[in-house]
TrEMBL record:
Protein name as catalogued: Pentatricopeptide repeat-containing protein
Pfam families: PPR_1, PPR_2
GO molecular function: mRNA binding
Domain of life: Eukaryota
Organism: Triticum turgidum subsp. durum (Durum wheat)
Keywords: Repeat, Transit peptide
Length: 399
C-alpha cells in the first residue's frame, strides 16, 4: 500500500484526482519521473480518472527527461479519453525551458514531436529555439530555423531577427549580422529599438566605430525611438574605442537637449573625462548627480576613488570613500583590493592598513594580487609596518 493510499484510508477517505495531481506534479518537477509514472499507474488501477493537470505534468516531465515516445503515448491516451491534448502554448513553454538550460537538441526533438502529432508551432516556439541555438553558439542551426519556419508557414517577426542578430554579434560574426540586418526591409520587417541596440553594441564591440555611428544616424532618420538604452550603448562604445572626445561632445549635446540620463551613463562619462585628463569636468559632473535626480551607486564612487588615487589625490579619495560609507553603500571586495594595491604602490602603507582592516574574509576577501603585492614590499617602508593590522605584520615580505 502506498503512502497516499495508507494516509487516505487512515482518514476514512479515498484518494482522489486532486491528491494524485498534486503528488504527480511535485514528483515531475523534482525530476522523479519514474515515481510520477508509478503514481499515475496506481491511480488508474484504483479507477481514479486522470485529468488534464495530471497528463500535463507527466507529459512535461517526459519531454524534459527525453522520454518523447512516452509523452506521445500519453497524448494519444488523453485524446482517446476525450481530454484535449496539450496545445502549442504548453509545448512552447517546454521548449523555452529546455533552451534556457542549453538543451537545445532536446528542445528540437520536442519540436519534431509537436509537428509529428499535427500541432502547428507558432513564432514564439521558433524564437525560443533560435535563442537556444544562439546560446550554445550554433549559429548555422539557428539560421536554418528560418527555413523550417517557412516550411510550416510561420512568418518570422522582428523578435526572430533580433535573436539571430544578437547571436551573430555575441559569436563575433558581425558581418553575418550586417548581412541579415540588410535583408530585413526586403522581408518587410522594420528594425525596432532593440534591434538597433543589438547591432550598435555588436559594431562597437567589433571596433567598427564609424559603422556604428552611421547606423545610429540611420536609426534616428528612420524615426525609430532612441531611448536611454541606446545612448548607453553609443556613449559606452565610443569610450571603449578611444573616441572619448567624441563621446563627451555627444554627451554635452544630449544634455543641452535635456535628455534624462541614468547613473550608468554618468559613471561612464565621469570615467571618460578622467581618462582624457578633463578632471574638473569629471568632478563637476559628479557634483551634479543629485541635481539630476539620481543617486551615486557603488560604481560611481569606485570610478571617483580609483581616478583620484591615480592622480595622487589620496586625501580626496579617502574623503570620497567616507562619503560612500556615510551613504550606506557597501564597497565591493574588488574595490577594497584595488584601493589597497594602489596605496601600497604609492608607498602609503599606513593608509593601506586602514583598508586592510576592512578585509573580513567573508564579504571582503584579500585577492591573490593584493597578497602578492604585500609580500613584494620586503624591506620597504618598515617604519609604517606597525600601523598595519596585526595579522598582516607577519607577512614574510615584511620580515
Amino acid at each position: 500500500m502506498s503512502f497516499i493510499q495508507w494516509k487516505a484510508t487512515g482518514q476514512g477517505v479515498s484518494p482522489d484526482v486532486v491528491t494524485y495531481s498534486i503528488v504527480i506534479a511535485a514528483l515531475s518537477r523534482m525530476g522523479r519521473l519514474t515515481d510520477a509514472i508509478e503514481k499515475f499507474n496506481e491511480m488508474t488501477a484504483l479507477e481514479v480518472q486522470p485529468d488534464t493537470t495530471v497528463y500535463h505534468s507527466l507529459i512535461q516531465g517526459c519531454c524534459i527527461d527525453g522520454y518523447l515516445v512516452k509523452a506521445k503515448e500519453l497524448m494519444f491516451e488523453m485524446m482517446n479519453g476525450g481530454i484535449p491534448r496539450p496545445n502549442i502554448v504548453f509545448f512552447s513553454s517546454v521548449i523555452n525551458s529546455l533552451c534556457k538550460e542549453g538543451r537545445v537538441m532536446d528542445a528540437h526533438d520536442v519540436l519534431d514531436l509537436v509537428i509529428g502529432i499535427g500541432e502547428r508551432p507558432n513564432v514564439i516556439t521558433f524564437n525560443s529555439l533560435i535563442d537556444g541555438y544562439c546560446l550554445v553558439g550554433n549559429m548555422d542551426k539557428a539560421f536554418k530555423i528560418l527555413d523550417v519556419m517557412e516550411s510550416v508557414g510561420v512568418e518570422p517577426n522582428v523578435v526572430t531577427y533580433s535573436a539571430l542578430l544578437d547571436g551573430y554579434s555575441k559569436n563575433r560574426r558581425i558581418d553575418d549580422a550586417l548581412t541579415l540586418f540588410r535583408e530585413m526591409p526586403r522581408k518587410r520587417i522594420k528594425p525596432d529599438t532593440v534591434t538597433y541596440g543589438i547591432m550598435l553594441d555588436g559594431l562597437f564591440r567589433a571596433g567598427r566605430t564609424v559603422a556604428a555611428m552611421e547606423m545610429f544616424h540611420e536609426m534616428t532618420e528612420s524615426g525609430t525611438t532612441v531611448d536611454i538604452f541606446i545612448y548607453n550603448i553609443i556613449l559606452g562604445g565610443l569610450c571603449r574605442n578611444n573616441c572619448v572626445d567624441e563621446a563627451i561632445a555627444l554627451f554635452q549635446k544630449l544634455r543641452a537637449m535635456n535628455v534624462k540620463f541614468n547613473i550608468e551613463i554618468l559613471n561612464t562619462m565621469i570615467n571618460a573625462m578622467y581618462k582624457v585628463q578633463r578632471k574638473e569636468e569629471a568632478k563637476e559632473l559628479f557634483a551634479t548627480i543629485s541635481a539630476n535626480g539620481l543617486v551615486p551607486n557603488e560604481s560611481t564612487y569606485a570610478v571617483m576613488i580609483r581616478n583620484l588615487l591615480k592622480g595622487g589625490a589620496v586625501e580626496d579619495a579617502d574623503n570620497m570613500f567616507s562619503s560612500m560609507d556615510n551613504s550606506g553603500i557597501v564597497p565591493s571586495s574588488h574595490l577594497i583590493n584595488d584601493i589597497i594595491r594602489m596605496l601600497l604602490k604609492k608607498g602609503e602603507i599606513a593608509k593601506a592598513g586602514n583598508y586592510l582592516s576592512k578585509v573580513d574574509g567573508k564579504s571582503i576577501s584579500l585577492e591573490a594580487s593584493t597578497t602578492s603585492l604585500l609580500l613584494s614590499r620586503k624591506g620597504k617602508h618598515q617604519v609604517d609596518i606597525k600601523l598595519l593590522p596585526a595579522k598582516y605584520q607577519f607577512f614574510d615580505g615584511f620580515g
